[in-house]
Amino acid sequence: MANYKNSTIEEFKEQQLQFTSRQGRLEQIDRAEKLLGEIDPCDTYSYRRFYERITRNRFDGESRLKIEGREAVHDLRCFVEDLSESVEMTVESIKEPVLTIEDLCRKYHVSSKTVDRWRDRGLASRRFLIGHRKRIGFLESSVDRFAKQHSEEMKRSRNFTQLSGWEREEIVRRARRMARYGRCPSEISKHLAKRMSRSPETIRHALSEYDNKHPHASVFPQHSSRVSDERKQEIFRSFRRGVPVERLAKQFCRSKGSIHRIISSLRAKRLLEQPIKFMDSEEFRMDNAEEIILQPPPTEKKNTKTIKPLPGLPPYLESLYAVPLLSREAEQYYFRKMNYLKYKACHLRETLGFGRPRSKSMDRIESLLDQYLEVKNFLIRSNLRLVVSLAKRYVKPGDNFFGIVSDGNMSLFRAIEKFDYTRGNKFSTYATWSIIKNFSRTISKEHAVQERYRTGTDELFQYTVEKRANHHREEMINQQQRQVIASILTQLDEREKNIIVLRFGLEQGVRPNTLAEVGLRLGVTKERIRQIESRALRKLQKIAQIQRLDIPGLEE
Fold first, then answer.
1. pLDDT one-digit tens code per residue, 230-253
2. Nearest partner of 439 among 479, 465, 405, judged by Cα
3. Domain limits at 155?
């Protein structure tokens, strides 16, 4: 029995073998083979369609299962083979010519492996009883239909025919001469494929076979067919920075197909390892869930009353009060949307595999995660003023106000991820409780440290005028510091610079990001971002010492 990719179609096959008569199975074989010729591998189909087309019965179940076209092609071909084997079909019972694998090899001048590839692409095959053995056979009409649909592929396949001894010697001779001039294996394979009217795969296979048999006289002694994990990571990072595949293929002496496979494999690995947690809800599984949940947000009532920011705040905190507060309905909309996007990404990720993950599926998952981050950032911006208000309420003389605000922001980030919107509560109530709880721990720890290292001059410090208490002056110093730091950032490499900018929000419109958020953007782990950040800060410190840079605010 064949190995099915979709368990539902395999169960369907078992039902037909058990409950359908021999004549019924013969009719289902013809209908399934005809349906196989209509399937587009790049499309998606409902299980209901398969059931009704093959059995001619109405589907009464509630299954909303969707099947990928590639899976359907593979499994329908297996379905035809298994049912034909069960009825012990003979060649004499068929009214048209039947071709064996050997017949196809002779007719199209290809190898048996090529015929196997055609079967995986949808060439319908049946199992016939020939003598006392069951053998694979193809109806002439099925072969003609496949040849019409895949004419270019079959034409290319003829270039995979057996190489003669003279051709092998000529390939090695020419490849050796080109290798002396520094040409990489992929370039040589493409060039010789054109000159000798062969496929690049045939040339590569012939050269690889020669090198394996003659290790002391190999054409590419320094070339390893296996790419190390470090090289794969380097290829993937370069691709994410925008380096074209063509340039990567030349740089790493690989074919474009090999580069694409490496990138797809690492993209899938990164997506599969990325944690995606969401608040589940029954409404996510409704038929029209996407239409309802992803519709435009509810219109907010215009509030003509201007909310004044708290006094004494620097300009970048005052700007938070320009973002309007969300109503209960708007909060429900955005939290439902954020969790639904994660739900969709998580379920779509289950279809990925490390073998040959589909780029279309990975693009869709990454798009869903980008949309989720966009909604999350909007919710963060809409609630940052809550952190500032609570910090002003709990801060005491001598406390680090901006440190407390930063700590409160981290509590806000966690609260947004953990808020269960399905209970109908208002988010500000949940976030206030979470932030205050964190403040009580943070502030008590700071006071404990201060109490431990208290000196006799503490009262003097309380009544001493603190020059840095002027928030406008602090903002001016902060801007000057940023200018100096920006001037030496150019001396870091591109990755280190990007991480420092994202971590500390050093560019206009860029908010400080957590290690996890930076890692998500750059496709590496949180721990790796921390290591690179530490290395970059040490570099900046050394550069500042060597150049004797005057950083405002640090001389006081």
1. 888 999 899 988 899 888 887 787
2. 405
3. 7-159
Say what the pLDDT of residue 94 is.
Answer: 87
Q: Which two tokens stand for residue 62?
A: 């509630």
323 or 55, greater pLDDT: 55
Q: Tell the residue number behind the tokens 């369609």, with chain if given.
A: 49
Whether residues 183 and 307 fall in one domain = no
Q: How far apart are CA 30 and CA 217, in angstroms?
A: 55
CA distance 276 to 376: 14
Q: What does the alpha-carbon distance between residue 106 and residue 108 come to, in Å, rounded to a whole number?
A: 6
Q: What is residue 303's predicted lDDT score, i.e. its pLDDT?
A: 55
**What CA dihedral angle connects 341, 346, 348 and 350, to 10 degrees?**
180
Same domain? 313 vs 442: yes
pLDDT (tens digit per residue) in 444-491? 555 454 444 445 444 444 444 444 445 455 556 666 666 667 777 778
> In angstroms, what CA-CA distances link 232 with 226, 227, 228, 259?
10, 7, 6, 9
Report the pLDDT value the prediction gives residue 501, as an integer from 0 to 100: 83
Task: Kindly tell me if the per-residue pLDDT of 63 is higher than 80.
Answer: no
- The DSSP string of 392-437 is HHH--TTS-HHHHHHHHHHHHHHHHHH--GGG---HHHHHHHHHHH
Q: H-type helices in 181-325, by residue range?
A: 185-196, 200-213, 229-240, 245-251, 256-273, 289-293, 315-318
Q: How many domains does the chain have?
A: 4
Q: Is 237 exposed, middle or buried (0-12, 13-18, 19+ CB in 10 A)?
A: middle
Half-sphere exposure (Cβ direction) of 335: Cα atoms closer than 13 Å? 25
Let me know if residue 486 belongs to a domain. Answer: yes
Query: SS3 helix, strand, coil % of the chain, rounded to 5?
Result: 65, 5, 30
505 token code pair = 């929000």
| Ranges 138-147, 169-178, 441-450, 528-537: which has the least confidence | 441-450
HSE-up of residue 216 (Cα within 13 Å, Cβ side): 0
Q: Specify the pLDDT at position 452.
A: 47
Tokens of 260: 């694409």
Predicted confidence (pLDDT) per residue in 378-414, tens digit: 999 888 888 888 888 877 776 677 778 888 888 899 9
pLDDT at 106 > cutoff 70: yes
Verify that 70 and 180 share a domain, yes or no: no
214, two tokens: 């003659």
Q: 153 and 195: one domain?
A: no
Tokens of 414: 């966690």
Find tokens 């399934």 and name the residue.
32
Residue 553 lies in a domain: no
Chain position carrying tokens 């048999």: 213
Tell me the C-alpha distance between 409 and 195, whole Å. 64
Q: What integer best gives the mean pLDDT of the chain? A: 80
Distance (Å, whole) CA 109 – CA 198: 13
